[in-house]
Fold:
Amino acid sequence: MKYVYGPVPSRRLGSSLGIDPLPSKTCNYQCIYCQLGRTTNFTNERKNYVPKNEIIAKMKTAIKQNKNNIDYITFVGSGEPTLYRDLGALILKVKEFSKKPVCVITNGALLYDLEIRNILMLADVVLPSLDAGDEKSFIRINRPHPSIKFDAMIQGFIDFQKNFKGKFWIEIMIMKGINDSKEKLLKIKEKIDLIRPDRIDINVPIRPPVEEWVKIPGKNIISLLNEIFGEYYDINFPEIGKFGFYSSDFEKEVLSIIERHPMRQEQILDTFSSNNFNKDEILLRLENLESKKKIKKILYDHKIFWKLL
Ligand code: SF4
Structure:
């Protein structure tokens, strides 16, 4: 469904209904590990990229339809959700439609801005990213918009967490040879100690990254992570469970999910075969979409993934 997808199985949130208020790849970062592909609309401008009323109408339908099978309603998707100017109004609308907790998955860049901090205060859970402990690594990993400065962003994280009553879980993406050395991890930990999040989530690029040279660290990283972070939540495992969809139009439904969330082939087979699609037929349809140059198959970490071309 336009602007809404899933519910999708989430490693951190259980069953999560995704609200996506942005056109594809609208972001103020160009992360080297992004699973969505290159940032095609690289901007730090906050505006209503798509009509608010259309998003609200789709949210209302999807929430009603899924009220018994979701754990969270999550703003996430094709880019950075805080770039949607009326994100606060959308959060309030969700709260009008449902009692389920509202989550915002954000890169956290705009937390330097008081207006964004106030908007995010409306959510129950905020999940920002922090992959670097200094400006140089930040620029190398996240390739931010030039108007975003590392120190101001970190101060924004600190200021937000001081007043936020909900859950603030910071996700760190660890990549081989990029930020997995003791020196780099200690610098990240230094910032984490200032921010004092409710939880640290450690992730590795389990889905195909935009830059092919980004790799998953070796298993020996675990002892270093234990030594430096002590207590953390490991989200370095594939999510399990089925994805939700809204019609019997396979092409439309599969594209709607993988636009925001590349899927392992086994997840696609699992999700659609239980809904009157035969597995061989699903594979044929995927190949058909590939021949139409809409999606592509990628072998990554010994698994087959399908993502948007
Ligand atoms: S990973 Fe998130 S923040 Fe980074 S470029 Fe992709 S959409 Fe933007």
Q: What stands out?
A: The longest strand covers residues 4-10. The pocket of iron/sulfur cluster is lined by residues 27, 29-31, 34, 36, 39, 79-80, 107 (CB under 6 Å). Residues 4-241 form a domain with the TIM Barrel fold (CATH 3.20.20.70).
